[in-house]
């Protein structure tokens, strides 16, 4: 019996992420150096690992409540209060999720209906649009390429007005993947002044909040717009805990009461031992990101120097751990083909800009969450490739 026509037809609108497709396509190249995924090369801090081990030894193997351990939610509330001047009640305004991805999924499923529209500054992380599409809603991109990837309040309001009543939400991601763009307090306040005029949700993906390089603390839009904002946080980047899959949803009680419904039927609850590790990370590892951040700055600056010297156009990233570089005009602007050839000839992998939507074409993304040794070798090979390509 052929059941192909019986699937959810919205699945026809999505594909496996091009980031994963490309990473898998080049993984069998012998000796490949991969600067592809947002996967810190640092290990999870030892005190976090010990806490999870202790939880397992203490037979903490049962379900937590759907919202997660109360102690973890309390630690999360204290963490964001100290770091970002935010106030959340751990009893009813915080959910523990299975990574930021599930946090996004649970939130979008809870607020979107077929035909709704969601604004997204572009180029953007490709994990948002498929979730929106699966529930029958649509992404409306705001092109930021002509403004050094920086969204402005004027661009935001213009698009809100154009989209009308079907507009349900806007997704903000800062520091941004793939561009590394982040925003000052004044810029965030200006966004809030626009958004508070309209009955729309604001999903603010701030998982890179601890990885900012401006010298100023990260500012969350939730500080200015608490009744509309669904704040997405997590420990994958700040504490090198990608495989632990612990994320957080923070919002007002009215919103959380609805989102917990989709969260419940998607996953029930996050893994218990992982939550105890996260509790330790947030309670006693508030500054665990600092040494990583120091190293990321050195890697970023090294990459900018080397790639600028090769003719790549780079807007200096102020957060996260990615370089989003414009391919020099004299080379093909098909980022997928360009990087396929580079991988095949020099055994180095970056991510094609096209993976981040139509406004990412002509760019490449390099993750500097790899070791400096790997980065240095990759730059030697890139220089060789560029010279040989020009000689063809």
From TrEMBL:
GO terms for biological process: amino acid metabolic process. One of its GO terms (molecular function) is pyridoxal phosphate binding. It holds the Pfam family Aminotran_1_2. The keyword Transferase applies. InterPro entries: Aminotransferase_I/II_large (IPR004839), AspAT/PAT-like (IPR050596), NHTrfase_class1_PyrdxlP-BS (IPR004838), PyrdxlP-dep_Trfase (IPR015424), PyrdxlP-dep_Trfase_major (IPR015421), PyrdxlP-dep_Trfase_small (IPR015422). Keywords: Aminotransferase, Pyridoxal phosphate, Transferase. Residues 32-382 form the Aminotransferase class I/classII large domain. Its cofactor is pyridoxal 5'-phosphate. It is an enzyme of class 2 (transferase). Its EC number is 2.6.1.-. Belongs to the class-I pyridoxal-phosphate-dependent aminotransferase family. This is Aminotransferase. It comes from Streptococcus zhangguiae.
């Amino acid at each position: 019996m052929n059941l192909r026509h019986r699937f959810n037809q919205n699945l026809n609108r999505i594909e496996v992420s091009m980031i994963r497709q490309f990473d898998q396509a080049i993984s069998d190249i012998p000796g490949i150096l991969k600067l592809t995924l947002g996967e810190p090369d640092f290990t999870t801090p030892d005190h976090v690992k010990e806490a999870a081990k202790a939880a397992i030894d203490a037979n903490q193997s049962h379900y937590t409540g759907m919202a997660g351990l109360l102690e973890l939610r309390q630690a999360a509330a204290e963490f964001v209060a100290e770091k970002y001047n935010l106030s959340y009640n751990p009893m009813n305004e915080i959910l523990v999720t299975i990574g930021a991805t599930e946090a996004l999924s649970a939130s979008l499923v809870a607020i979107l209906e077929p035909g709704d529209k969601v604004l997204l500054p572009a180029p953007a992380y490709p994990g948002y649009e498929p979730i929106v599409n699966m529930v029958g809603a649509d992404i409306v991109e705001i092109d930021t390429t002509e403004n050094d990837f920086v969204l402005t309040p004027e661009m935001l309001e213009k698009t809100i007005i154009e989209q009308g009543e079907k507009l349900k939400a806007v997704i903000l991601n800062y520091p941004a993947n793939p561009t590394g763009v982040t925003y000052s307090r004044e810029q965030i306040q200006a966004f809030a002044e626009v958004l508070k005029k309209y009955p729309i949700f604001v999903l603010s993906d701030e998982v890179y909040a601890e990885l900012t390089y401006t010298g100023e603390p990260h500012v969350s839009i939730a500080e200015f717009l608490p009744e509309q904002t669904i704040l997405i946080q997590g420990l994958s980047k700040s504490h090198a805990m990608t495989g632990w899959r612990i994320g957080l949803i923070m919002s007002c009680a009215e919103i959380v009461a609805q989102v917990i419904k989709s969260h419940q039927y998607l996953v029930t609850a996050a893994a218990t031992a992982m939550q105890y590790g996260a509790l330790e990370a947030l309670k006693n590892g508030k500054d665990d990101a600092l040494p990583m951040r120091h190293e990321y700055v050195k890697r970023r600056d090294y990459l900018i120097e080397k790639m600028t010297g090769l003719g790549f156009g780079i807007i200096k990233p102020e957060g996260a751990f990615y370089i989003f570089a414009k391919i020099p005009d004299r080379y093909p602007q098909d980022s997928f083909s360009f990087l396929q050839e580079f991988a095949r000839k020099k055994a180095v992998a970056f991510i094609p800009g096209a993976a981040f939507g139509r406004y990412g074409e002509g760019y490449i993304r390099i993750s500097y969450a790899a070791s400096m040794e790997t980065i240095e070798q990759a730059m030697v090979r890139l220089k060789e490739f560029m010279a040989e390509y020009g000689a063809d």
